[in-house]
Amino acid sequence: MVRIAIVGGGAIGLLFANYLTKANHHVTIIVRRKEQEMEIKKHGISLTGQEEQMDVEVRQSNDFIEQEFDLIVVTVKQTAIKEVVLNINRGILRANAFLFVQNGMGHLTSIRQFKNKSIYIGVVEHGAKRISDNMVHHTGIGKVNVGLLKGNEHELQVLVKQLTSEKFPVNYAQNAEKIVKEKLVINAVINPLTALYRIKNGQLLHNEHFIAVMKKLFDEAMVVLNLENRADMWEEITRICRSTASNDSSMQVDLTVGRETEIEAISGYIIREAKEKNISVPFTTFVYESIKGMSAITERG
Ligand SMILES: NC(=O)C1=CN([C@@H]2O[C@H](COP(=O)(O)OP(=O)(O)OC[C@H]3O[C@@H](n4cnc5c(N)ncnc54)[C@H](OP(=O)(O)O)[C@@H]3O)[C@@H](O)[C@H]2O)C=CC1
Ligand SMILES: CC(C)(CO)C(=O)C(=O)O
Fold first, then answer.
1. Which of 133, 140, 161, 172 has minimal CB crowding within 10 Å?
2. Considering only CA atoms, which residue is closest to atom 30 of ligand 1?
3. Using a 6 Å CB cutoff, which residues line ligand 2?
4. How confident is the model at residue 243 (pLDDT cuts 50, 70, 90)?
């Protein structure tokens, strides 16, 4: 049994909490809002379509948390990473190892700087949608790939074996940077376009004009991130558009509900890297500025 804290009670936090509790790990969810803490305390957590309500420990993020965990899984969005990193640096969140599962690469620089900690990076291939403060809909079944950013490879391999289960597979990935970069290319193509065009992921493939723009963003991201497996990666992007055809991408949802998007950690990261390498990325810059502009109109203050 691993003593796990999950920071963030959103879609991915609740999904991890459900499956890791079912696999008999001791799970504590650390949430931001008092109402969510009360709801989970009263009713436990559950997955849609399943009767079972599971009890988990729950704490509020500004509580004093005396416990040191074996593993803390950080499931907040990129937009909240700064605050969580501050709490880790202040010793408010304490663990032997930290697993970060965000889309995008904006957070890598700050989390690499933790002292004496094992840092793992996860790429989540599941789809999840939060239905209420204690219930999540598992919209797409996939796996979680975890690689080492800092620490001991053997310890990570042991942990991955402890975490994995039939219903919630966790795999060890040898090259953390590569899997994160590949996920970044996928998000840099699908997320801004679905958000700007207000379409579902699958609709990107229904139209040769959308495909032409996807290819421009794809080419720019591949060059900047120095990835060579072009044919496989393009195939992967189209596969994801098909397998999540009826999903709204997270950026499309964030923009629609007026929440800050993860554009800075996705397209913003590519633009910053491109600048350092003196590479021109006009299509990525266009979608970045467009999402920023749209957000300025829709974000709730
Ligand atoms: N959902 C999905 O299908 C997938 C998501 N991802 C990635 O996973 C990450 C998480 O996404 P997702 O779960 O969908 O996002 P959500 O917006 O559903 O959840 C984020 C949660 O973090 C909470 N939070 C924010 N700040 C803090 C804090 N300081 N302390 C504790 N909790 C905090 C929010 O609280 P509050 O509820 O109060 O706002 C919210 O519950 C993102 O990077 C996303 O790109 C990757 C693959 C698939
Ligand atoms: C893979 C994809 C595009 C699925 O919707 C995603 O990760 C997201 O929406 O952020």
1. 161
2. 32
3. 103, 186-187, 190-191, 201, 240, 244, 247, 249-250
4. confident
Q: What does DSSP assign to residue 78?
A: G
The H-assigned helical ranges of 166-249 are 176-197, 208-224, 230-243
Q: Whose CA is nearest to atom 5 of ligand 2?
A: 249
How confident is the model over 202-229, as a mean pLDDT? 97
Which listed residue (117, 129, 183, 216) is catalytic?
Answer: 183
- Within 6 A (CB) of ligand 1 lie 7-13, 30-33, 61, 75-78, 80, 83-84, 101-103, 124, 127-128, 130, 250, 262
Residues 17 and 155 in one domain: yes
Give the domain CATH number at 224: 1.10.1040.10
- In this prediction, residue 38 carries a pLDDT of 96
Nearest ligand (C-alpha, residue 189): 2
Count of structural domains, the chain: 2
CA of 80 to the centre of ligand 1 (A): 8
Q: Which of 109, 143, 174 is a domain's end point?
A: 174
Residue 183 annotated in active site: yes
Range of the domain at 223: 179-298
From ligand 2's centre to the CA of 50, what distance in Å? 24
* Strand-strand pairing, 135-140 and 127-132: antiparallel
**Minimal CA–CA distance to 281: which of 185, 180, 203?**
185
Q: Do residues 152 and 290 share a domain?
A: no
Determine the Cα–Cα distance for residues 288 and 276; give it in Å rounded to an integer.
17
**Residues 6 or more apart whose Cβ sits within 8 Å of residue 229:** none
Whether residues 148 and 275 fall in one domain: no
Our CA angle for 111, 117, 118, nearest 5°, is 85
Q: What does the pLDDT average to over 284-298?
A: 95
- Point out the ligand nearest to the CA of residue 103: 1
**CATH code (residue 76):** 3.40.50.720
Please check whether residues 100 and 204 belong to one and the same domain: no
